[in-house]
Write a structure and sequence with these properties.
heterodimer; A: mainly alpha; MetI-like fold; 2 domains; 18 helices; 83% helix; 0% strand; extended; B: CBS-domain; four-stranded antiparallel beta sheet; elongated
């Protein structure tokens, strides 16, 4: 106690000396205040003092606003016409896309057909060919292995409910689109993420592109996607990939950068090549983060289901759209519930997979 | 010293961190102090003109405070950190001229490294961790796991091979690190503060085990530490670093007995000198030696000349035979005894020149403290000198009184 009191005394003794410099810088204000002493202005002095303590830029800002509201600037308040280039830029972009549609037609069609006939359709055919009870059983088993008994029962119940709603076939089509886009997103995202982790320059270039992809409203790129790829499943998948690829890229990058540098150094010290370090050290240690990225990518793909239905991708999204178009609340709700059920099951299963890799992470920390 | 007889030769090695390291090395900056260069240019001279040799089978300890450049130095030996200038010769070949592929071969086969924070792969079992270097070489699974198991046994981790690293204590994890470094049977072992992260008892065990292991495997070891006791215990020779430069290189004895400057003596001040210094370092040449065939009169005369009450008797091979006292000799001279052979007494304590002063103190405890002077013998029992009570006392007292003095100094310095 005595010691505390001592320090307090010391502090109180010191404060006047440290305070003087601050006072000196505001000498102008304090003289102003001193004038108010003893006058009628005495009661306003205290709040005035608080106002005067504000930084100068706040004052300047306030004065500017005041001036702006007091005067009528007329035409001078508007952006000059010479500066308006919006229409020109928009026309340029239109022409560019038109040019691409005309000149890249063969390549785009080839891409379209390849994706559709070698990936989407076979997968869809296979999924649709499976008996619904077998799919339910597989979901139950995987849910049991990845999360536990309770969720396995819950997942089974939800799949049966979905089937009972008559949404099973639509769900399989949606699942096809989600799987295809996730595979593409992973195929594009992981190498891109690795490139960003390995090169700060790549990181600096790609990062704003990812920001753009995530903040740009998806309807904006739906237009050119329709123009380039037509309507149907392929443009749906492409729109989903654009929307869902950023998290897997970001988290691949993050996961690799987070790997303890001393472990990488040790691997290098024992003569591991760059490729060996990547595949034997960095990727295995980044796996939990990678799985979190995969989880987010799948979730975002499901989130796009309704939007892609607008450009003709079939599935549960169609139900929602039809519900809106025909004002059938029940139909829309069932479709929505179907999407939610798929989201819950896929989310918990991928999260469970991510968690089963946790011990490695803990030891790395 | 010709570099061909050395396993490892470092020649004026520099490392400068910063974007314009070459400029720093070419200009006058290289002669300026580290603090000055850092303040003015933002570059850090981590390694300044380091030159030393390590003989095959030698344990060479590099010691210094944190930031002295010792970790950079050991990383330069594997090019984990690329040196800015200089040469690192291993068996006469400059590894700085190696291409990428040869460097990787060098890392895989010739050198193994042990890290302060272990650097184990957390997602792999102990066995797979040890086999990692062999796996990188592309050796087939069977062979590499057999070899890994063999090395694990050598470091006393039998039965733990299928555990994950995080299931092991720190000391055991570092044994895994050591086993991993030894798996490819490299000639050079680089150890970067391997025991610093362990608690003191485990640390001492690991030091002892390393010494035992080294007796068997006889690797060329470069051992980094900030702990002088560890350096003195393990090192055949010690290099002391400060601000990236090597301040002194010498045997533990030389470092403690003759620190080259204030910085080194600051380190060694707290060391119990008696535990490190050999008797040789405080002995003086024998003031009087007489031969066992000489007669009492001659000996008496010599003792009178030297004003000594005691003389050491040696045979023709200079081997210590005993001591004679002035009183016995005088009596014998009066009685006309022909030889001094029968007058000799067993010396109370025979001290070996290479044993430590502390060992001498232990011997003294069993005897009369009033003994003023003791004979010191070499490896073949030959008389090499004598040691006085006063000088023993001086060394033992100095190391105790040294501590408060050191404190006073550092306070002034700070």
């Amino acid at each position: 106690m005595a010691q505390l009191r001592e320090t307090l005394i010391v502090e109180s003794e010191q404060s006047p000396t440290t305070g003087t410099s601050a006072n000196e810088t505001r000498r102008g204000w304090s003289t102003l205040l001193r004038i108010t002493e003893g006058s009628l202005l005495q009661p306003v002095a205290a709040p005035l003092q608080a106002l005067l303590a504000l930084p100068k830029w706040v004052w300047l800002f306030g004065i500017a606003l005041l001036v702006g509201s007091l005067f009528n600037f007329g035409r001078a308040a508007e952006v000059p016409e010479g500066l308006l280039i919006g229409a020109t830029v928009a026309r340029g972009v239109d022409r560019g896309v038109d040019w691409m549609v005309v000149n890249w037609d063969t390549a785009l069609r080839a891409f379209n057909v390849t994706l559709l006939h070698y990936l989407i359709l076979p997968l869809e055919k296979w999924l649709m060919g499976l008996p619904w009870w077998l799919v339910t059983g597989v979901v139950a088993l995987v849910a049991y292995r990845m999360t536990g008994r309770v969720f396995a029962l819950l997942a089974t119940g939800m799949v049966v409910l979905m089937a009972a709603f008559g949404l099973y076939n639509l769900a399989m089509i949606t699942l096809t689109i989600v799987i295809t886009s996730t595979v593409l997103a992973v195929a594009l995202g992981i190498p891109t993420g690795i490139a960003m982790a390995k090169s700060n320059r790549a990181d600096a270039v790609i990062r704003p592109v990812l920001d753009l992809m995530q903040t740009m409203p998806s309807f904006v790129y739906l237009i050119p996607v329709i123009m380039l790829f037509g309507i149907g499943k392929v443009p749906g998948v492409i729109a989903v990939v654009i929307y869902a690829v950023p998290p897997i890229i970001r988290l691949t990058n993050l996961g690799i950068r987070q790997v303890d540098s001393s472990i990488i150094e040790a691997a290098r010290a024992f003569g591991a090549t760059g490729t060996q370090v990547l595949f034997k050290v960095e990727l295995p240690l980044a796996l939990p983060t990678l799985m979190a990225g995969l989880n987010q990518t799948i979730m975002m793909a499901l989130g796009m289901v309704v939007v892609t239905s607008m450009i003709g991708a079939p599935g549960l999204g169609i139900e929602v759209l039809n519900g809106i178009a025909r004002l059938e609340v029940g139909r829309g709700l069932l479709g929505g519930i179907g999407i939610v059920i798929m989201a819950i099951i896929l989310d918990r299963i991928t999260q469970g997979f991510s968690k089963s890799r946790q011990p490695a992470r803990r030891a790395a920390g | 010293m010709p570099s061909s007889t050395q396993k490892l030769s470092i020649r004026s090695l520099w490392k400068v961190f910063g974007p314009h390291a070459d400029y720093i090395l070419k200009s006058d900056w290289r002669r300026k102090s580290r603090a000055e260069v850092q303040k003015e240019t933002g570059h850090v001279i981590a390694l300044r003109d380091a030159t030393f040799d390590v003989a095959a089978g030698e344990t060479f300890v590099v010691m210094g405070l944190s930031g002295s450049g010792k970790s950079t130095l050991v990383r330069c030996l594997l090019r984990l950190v690329e040196p800015s200038q200089g040469h690192v010769l291993v068996d006469g070949e400059d590894i700085l001229e190696y291409s990428g592929k040869r460097l990787i071969q060098f890392r895989r086969k010739k050198a193994g490294m042990v890290f302060q924070r272990f650097g184990l792969l957390p997602h792999r079992s102990v066995l797979d961790n040890v086999a990692f270097g062999l796996e990188a070489q592309g050796i087939n699974k069977r062979t590499r796991l057999d070899r890994a198991l063999e090395v694990l046994q050598a470091v006393g981790l039998e039965g733990w091979e299928h555990n994950m690293p995080y299931e092991l204590s720190g000391g055991m994890q570092q044994r895994v690190g050591l086993a991993r470094a030894l798996a490819a049977d490299p000639e050079i072992l680089l150890m970067d503060e391997p025991f610093s992260a362990l608690d003191p008892l485990i640390r001492r065990d690991m030091q002892n085990e390393l010494m035992k292991l080294q007796e068997r495997i006889k690797k060329t070891i470069v051992f980094i530490t900030h702990d002088l006791d560890e350096a003195l215990k393990l090192g055949n020779r010690i290099a002391i670093m400060r601000d990236g430069a090597i301040v002194q290189i010498g045997t533990p004895e030389e470092i403690v007995a003759t620190p080259s400057d204030e910085y080194v003596s600051e380190f060694t001040r707290d060391v119990r000198k008696a535990a490190v210094l050999p008797v040789r370092s405080i002995m003086t040449p024998p003031t009087l030696r007489v031969y066992d065939w000489q007669g009492p009169r001659v000996v008496l005369h010599e003792m009178g000349e030297a004003k000594e009450e005691l003389a050491f008797v040696v045979d023709r091979d200079e081997r210590l035979m005993g001591v004679v006292t002035g009183r016995a000799i005088a009596e014998a001279a009066q009685n006309g005894v022909a030889s001094i052979k029968h007058l000799m007494q067993e010396p109370p304590i025979v001290v070996s020149a290479d044993s430590t002063i502390e060992a001498l103190l232990a011997q003294l405890l069993d005897y009369d403290w009033r003994i003023e002077v003791l004979p010191v013998v070499g490896a073949d029992d030959e008389l090499v000198g004598e040691v006085h009570r006063a000088s023993v006392r001086e060394v033992t007292l100095a190391s105790k009184a040294g501590q408060p003095a050191a404190l006073g100094q550092t306070q002034k310095g700070g």
